[in-house]
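Researcher: Please translate sequence to structure tokens.
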Amino acid sequence: MKKTEHILEVMEQRKAATGVPMTLFAACPNSLSVIKASFRAAKRNNAPIYFATTLNQVDNDGGYTGMTQAEFTKILAREAAAVNYTGPYVVAIDHGGPWLKDKQTLERYTLEQAMDGVKKSYEAAILAGYDLIHVDPTVDITLPKGEIINIHVVAKRTVELIKHAEDFRKAHNMPPISYEVGTEEVHGGLADDKTFDTFLTDLKAGLAEAGMPEIWPIFIVGKVGTDLHTTLFDADVARKLTSKVRPYGSYIKGHYSDDVDNPQDYPTSGMGAANVGPEFTMCEYKALMELEQIELANPACSPKSGMSQALLNAVHDSGRWKKWLRGEEVGKDLLECSKERQEWLVQTCCRYIWQNPEVLKAREVLYANLEKQGIHAEEVVLMRIEHNMDKYYYAFNIVNLNDYLK
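Model: Translation complete:
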């Protein structure tokens, strides 16, 4: 059985035996610190961990983490071994679709170029041993501004991408993989009942027509109230969507579950899994700022690392913050935004620049300064991230799930 399906089946078995529903926790591995913290948290909670990895993060060109798919899976194996984590972990592409990689949008790829790039990313992921691919062709930058992609086109491109992945997998004698489809975002996503139902009907028919009636996504992403700027999960909507997809054998997957106010409602509403990402970037940022304050207060720490300034400079120069500007901020420079918004933008966009040489150097100096004072700086960073991960393990009722997983 596919790894993801096996984990979910055991979760169903435990629910039947105990009456306690469960949701699988997925972390977005936007830095090496998050990867390390993920395995430490999974080890401590004796539970599986799911890595939902965007093509901006890990891809053939190294992404902003500097890792290709093959390098990524090797690093995961290394970090799992470092803490003797022997439980299962799922490796997945997140938002694998045309123009969802920033480079494709910025360079105005044609449809053919964008689809070809995504297919090559799938191929590398399959060869690297990924377990799941999120097929998400819900963006089309060739459309007139404001026009939303037709849901029939979304279904057709979803089938095309799944067929390519399956043909490539079989040709290279690789194990079966799982699929996730859809998006929670407004741009052509499954935003209302009619669109959602149409997509499912088209997808079922399209897969059968393409000679893949046995292939069906284990996860369908649902619009359940959460995005980067909201924190309230809509349990009623989740229950309704779950009732639609469970007869198909699928589960609803939540995205942007960061800092959600009511994580305990995910299992009770039938959610199969939930992604958390930017929250851990902010944890890492806050830990580094905590450490810098200790450094600044200690005269023996010299020369100073300049950690906060290095982060601000790197985020500013990256230009990545521009995509998160709102309202009157559009067109402004990062340094012209309010201090509160400036800090939010830096925290959110740090994930893009952790591998910047100046940032790496500043972190190296910061850690070295504090180590000389008996402070284990990396431990402070990892514990801060792990603390937030623990919240989801408990809220999603999956602590000690590994006792029941082969």
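Researcher: Any highlights?
Model: The longest helix spans residues 151-171.
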